[in-house]
Design a protein that fits this description.
heterodimer; A: alpha+beta; elongated; B: mainly alpha; 2 strands; globular
């Protein structure tokens, strides 16, 4: 019988691929729950941090609103818009999760805006900036509070950046600008709370 | 047993993947800015290295020479993906620091290099020894580098949210340590040191 080269070489690769796929499927099944939980927890935690008055957060799912918000945000990504509700179900503000670009990669942050359209506070959800330099956007405790009380993207543009962390702090500023621009585009807190 | 230990020791000193074989440097220089991240990177590499070495060694008799590289890569990629999923689910802070470097273990020369140079030609038990030796050799260098850069660059050493050592907030370390050039300079010194040490080990080996 002639040696079938495709079978001789292909079979081992096929068997290994099938076994690997099975192994991965099993692992994925085990880790899917924890991974989703981690993502949700991180989201909740950062929203709680920027809007301490709110009890629960409700994700805005209206596609038209989100498209408008993304268009206004430019190259900053809008990862989520949340209605912040107090115990009675009244809207106390809006939380936005946005992704901007820093020096070492994406900077993800949460921006909270109260009912009067003022920024309550900004927190960094995740970043990969150079420790000791770009990481000052978190370590320098005077930086993030500079965004508190701002009401428009124009105001956010005037916030001072940090020496030695110019690109990183500019990234944060750009994220806040985009969040405020996006919120304005969808009609502010009023626009978001009207269902 | 003696052979097992000899292979294990090889990875730590005379054939240390980083300081002697000079492979896998890319991830070493990139993630060694923090102790915690580099330690977990080392653990991830140990796991992938040992598991892929075992499997590759186990299937080496059924692996045709012509397609061995695709088979190695599939096996390695499977274990790397497992590490990736587990870190994402259970150690999110570590995962966010290591980021893209975890999937990049697939193309880490150490793992593929050991599969090709060792596991493909040796039994399962010796391949475990090789995996552990090479992995631990990698981990010691990378986490040492990480600890030094973090401690003297930023003035404190943080592990799982606990500050282990701190020089106080007045400490201003040389920023270069935290940047990539610092990693290059420091790594050069480590290589020089381990060369001197290995020279002595070699001399002793020849004398025996």
């Amino acid at each position: 019988m002639r040696d079938n080269i495709y079978l001789r070489l292909g079979m081992p690769v096929l068997v290994i691929c099938i076994l690997s796929a099975a192994g991965l499927a099993i692992t994925y099944g085990f880790t899917r729950g924890p991974i989703e939980r981690q993502a949700r927890e991180a989201e909740q935690e950062s929203l709680n941090a920027v809007l301490p008055d709110a009890k629960t957060f409700e994700r805005v799912t209206a596609a038209a609103l989100l498209a408008k918000a993304s268009a206004a945000a430019g190259d900053v990504t809008i990862d989520g818009v949340f209605r912040a509700l107090d115990g009675t179900g009244a809207t106390v503000g809006v939380g936005l999760l946005v992704g901007s670009r820093g020096y070492g990669g994406p900077i993800r942050m949460a921006v909270g805006v109260d009912r009067n359209g003022k920024v309550t506070s900004v927190t960094i959800v995740s970043m990969n900036e150079t420790p000791g330099l770009g990481s000052k956007i978190v370590d320098d405790k005077t930086f993030l509070p500079r965004f508190g009380g701002l009401t428009s993207a124009e105001e956010a543009r005037k916030v001072d950046t940090i020496t030695g962390a110019t690109k990183s702090s500019r990234g944060v500023r750009k994220g806040v600008e985009a969040a405020l621009a996006a919120l304005q585009a969808i009609g502010g807190v009023e626009g978001v709370s009207a269902r | 047993m003696k052979e097992f230990m000899a292979v294990l020791r090889n990875g730590l000193s005379l054939e240390n993947p980083l300081t002697v074989l000079m492979i896998g440097l890319c991830s070493t220089l990139a993630v060694s800015a923090k102790f915690e991240g580099s330690l977990f990177m080392g653990i991830a590499v140990i796991f992938v290295l040992v598991m892929s070495n075992v499997l590759i060694s186990a299937v080496r008799r059924f692996t045709p020479d012509e397609v061995r590289i695709p088979i190695f890569i599939v096996i390695i990629a499977a274990f790397v993906t497992i590490v990736d999923l587990v870190l994402k689910g259970y150690f999110p802070s570590v995962y966010s620091f290591l980021g893209v470097w975890i999937p990049l273990i697939v193309v880490n020369c150490i793992v593929l290099g050991r599969a090709e140079a060792f596991a493909y030609h040796n039994g399962v038990v010796l391949s475990i020894a090789d995996g552990i030796g090479m992995g631990v050799g990698y981990t010691i260098i990378i986490s040492g580098l990480g600890a030094f850069r973090e401690l003297f660059g930023s003035g404190k050493l943080v592990f799982l949210q606990h500050t282990l050592v701190s020089f106080g907030s007045a400490y201003r370390g040389p920023n270069i340590l935290l940047l990539f050039p610092g990693a290059f300079l420091l790594f050069g010194l480590i290589v020089a040191g381990s060369r001197a040490l290995n020279k002595r080990l070699m001399a002793r080996k020849e004398a025996v």
